[in-house]
Amino acid sequence: MSPAGARAEDPVAGIRRVRVRLGPAVAIAAHHYQRPEIVALADFTGDSYRLAVEAAASRARYIVFCGVRFMAESAAILARPGQEVLIPDPGAGCPMADMIDAGAAAAVLARLDTLTGSEVAPVTYMNSSADMKAVTGARGGSVCTSGNAAAVLSRFLDRGRSVFFSPDRNLGWNTARALGLDGSRVFTVRRDGSIDGTGDPSRAALFLWDGHCHVHRRFTVADLEAARARVPGITVMVHPECDGPVAAAADRTGSTEAILEAVRAGGPGSAWAVGTEAGFVHRLAAAMPDRTVLPLRESYCMNMARIDAAGLYATLRSVEDRLDGGTGPLYHPVTVGVSVREDAARALTAMIDTVAGAR
Ligand code: SF4
Question: Is the pLDDT of residue 358 over 70?
Answer without folding.
Answer: no
